[in-house]
Design brief:
This protein is mainly α and about 250 residues long. The protein has helices spanning about 5-25, 35-40, 45-65, 70-90, 95-120, 130-150, 155-160, 165-190, 195-205, 205-225, 225-245. Helix 4 (about 70-90) packs across helix 6 (about 130-150).
């Protein structure tokens, strides 16, 4: 078992709770999870522990949202995301997440600004992007960043916002996409020795906190209006992008 003091146990449990909320209810709610985990354990170890927590939270999310995914949008992202994961696996050998994060943060902020301008000027008549390169480019970036920096959330948010999905389908589509993507990352993470028996034991101990967070996420999702939901996820995506810059 990874050696953690009392404060570290509390932080990891809080992170598990936030991941649960973000998976079932408010995407991006757990923007502080990555730096918090890295603050209480070695950065490399925190990556493997977090991946296990994400996968367990995914199980709750896809169970609840089993009928809420728009599979066409999921499938458009999967192949380029797999290419991005492979690129990220090799990229981890030559570039650090510290070098990658500000680049991704800048890209996300620019794309959020473009999406805001598009919807602000054209409103409900704003066209839904259908070009192959839009889904392909964002899918590749999502795979690359989730493998190297656990930073695919804001990129996926941009894609789903552009598709103008209702909040339930937004969360359901994101849940199924990340369920598949996170499992695809497992063999690469094991090979890189960031997922270990010790990290899996810690993941199982966090299961109750993930479960509570998942229930809280469902509670919030049912009560937040569509307009407020879109505003919140955009603000959280922007906050995540700014965090990546610094």
């Amino acid at each position: 078992m990874l050696e953690l003091d009392v404060v570290s146990w509390i932080v990891v449990a809080l992170c598990a709770l936030m991941v649960g909320i973000s998976k079932t209810g408010i995407p991006g709610f757990g923007i502080l999870v990555v730096p918090l985990m890295a603050a209480v354990m070695p950065a490399r170890a925190s990556t493997g522990v977090l991946l296990g927590i994400l996968i367990l939270a995914d199980l709750f999310a896809v169970t609840y949202h089993r009928h809420n995914a728009r599979w066409g949008y999921v499938l458009r992202l999967l192949v380029p995301s797999l290419v991005g994961i492979v690129a990220g696996y090799f990229g981890m050998k030559v570039i650090s997440d510290r070098q990658l994060k500000p680049i991704i943060g800048g890209i996300v902020l620019v794309m959020l600004a473009v999406n805001y301008w598009r919807t602000a000027t054209k409103g409900k008549d704003a066209p839904v992007p259908t070009k192959w390169w839009f889904a392909g480019g964002l899918g590749f970036l999502a795979g690359l960043t989730t493998m190297m920096a656990n930073a695919a959330g804001p990129i996926t948010t941009i894609y789903l916002l552009a598709m103008r999905l209702p909040k339930i389908e937004f969360v359901g589509t994101a849940a199924w996409f990340f369920f598949v993507i996170n499992w695809l990352k497992v063999p690469f993470s094991v090979r890189l020795d960031v997922m270990t028996k010790e990290s899996l034991k810690l993941n199982l101990l966090m299961l109750p906190f993930i479960a509570v967070g998942s229930v809280m996420g469902i509670f919030f999702l049912k009560r937040i209006p569509q307009k407020a939901f879109s505003a919140v996820v955009q603000l959280l995506a922007a906050a995540a992008a700014i965090k990546l810059l610094f």
